[in-house]
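INTERNAL TRANSFER SHEET
From: sequence group
To: structure group
Subject: Recombinase TnpX

Please process the attached sequence and return the structure record in the designated field. Keep the field labels unchanged so the import script can parse them.
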Amino acid sequence: MCAYSVFNTFPVYPLSAKPLILLAFCRYRYHTSLFNRPGFKKILNLIKSGEIDCIIVKDLSRLGRDFTEVLRYVQRRFPEWGVRFIAIDDNYDSEAESCKEDFLTLPIKSLLNESYPANTSISIRNTLKAMREQGLFVGAYAYYGYQKDPNDHHRLILDPIASEVVRDIFRWKLCGLSQDAIATRLDSLGILPPADYKVSQGVRYRTTFKKYERSHWTAVAVGRILNNTAYLGILIQGKTTTPNFKVKKIIYKSEEEWAVVEGAMPPLVSWIDFMIVNHLLEHDTRTAPGQETVYLFSGLLECIDCHQSLVRKSTKAGGKEYGYYVCSTNRENSRTCSPHRVSESKLKKNILLLIQYHISVLTDLKSILSYVDTIPFSDRRVQKESSRMEMLKKDYQRNMKLAASLYGDYQDELLTREEYLQLKKQYSSRCTELEKLIEQQKVENDNIFRNICGKNAWIDHFLQFGQVKELDRRLVVSCIKSIQVSEKGNLEITFWFKDEFRKVIAKIRQICTELPNQKMETFLESLGEGGVMCG
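Return from structure group:
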């Protein structure tokens, strides 16, 4: 006779030394709700080979906690295989007549055993959900560039080594390197890829994607880093789930169901750089032959008519090479769109001038905003309220007076009790509504003036380049979102943060209307008609 033992309360080896118990097995570190645990698989193989004809467990829960599976094995599979099953604490022996005639005890006890992992699963799910919503990290491994806080493993802090690598990857992308070129550079510098780096730091990390003993950086790995919003300090968790504790099929949740917490960890890159990098990733760019970086205007030039990209061509004259750009649609079919040809030298010259002018304007704009923000609020306030505010206040006062006069009319029997209560309710409701409208109007008026330059980080983004003397890839992509080329080679430039620029100019124009100021008026006049420049 052979026996399968899952006694956790007794030593395994003395049991296997018993004359009738030839084999003993443990379920250590495996949930009994799982029937794919190694020890159980081994027992099934021994049963099929005829080496085991009896299984002994402490109780039914030690065989398993899956109601359906326990009954399938105990009532069907074991009898088919001629295997005797004994559960000591549950007083169950498959060969005992009393057990053969009892059809209720076994299912009830198995159902109760299943309720334990079911309740545990619900409790764990609720706990993890609450932790995710609080911005606590519940993953097994930290993102590359971060590490778990030694004092709190549910908090992520910067990894001093890997975080610098992540910053370099974003910087190189802005400077014109492709994902392949970045991967090659990382390998040449001897920087370990994410999986190998985790192992080198003592993390017990395993992955099914590793094919070779020594891994290498890939364009895909670089792309994942460039796309990962975690580097903005945004922790996104709970993207997947399973139907229940029995079924391990992965279900992908919709974005609305994700747990998203901003500021859960220190950011590694600015949101502006992240936005620009991901804009570049959406456009196909080609690395210059024999070069590590893309062309200066790759991914930015667009035909104003067909909205397709312009491609770079070159020609030689007088021993020199001259570059120019043409519409990609025209290149494939000249009858579909005109060439929209523009020389590279013209582009460089005009773009440099426009960027210099744009930075100059933003320098003046920052000075204007600083001036506006230092003016005492009482001096800035318009002496006369806007017509809407005046109308709201007058309406409020009128309703308050009418409400106050109601009781006198009721006392003079000019109003019945029902009329008095109804009118009082109407006036009170109207006054409450007007109070809210007045507060909203105050907020709108204050927003025109107060802290107008408090959140204009985009201005500093441009000003970081200072006095520009020549173009480079990072400067161009950081300042310009797109360049549209007309049939005659004219350029229509769209700078980053065009809408933000318009809003600030509109606010300054409104302030200048209510509170005339020579400095602001001169600045607005310098922008030309409409107060908006460069697309």
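Handover comment: Confidence is low (pLDDT under 50) at residues 1-19, 377-384, 530-535. The longest helix spans residues 417-449.
Transfer complete.
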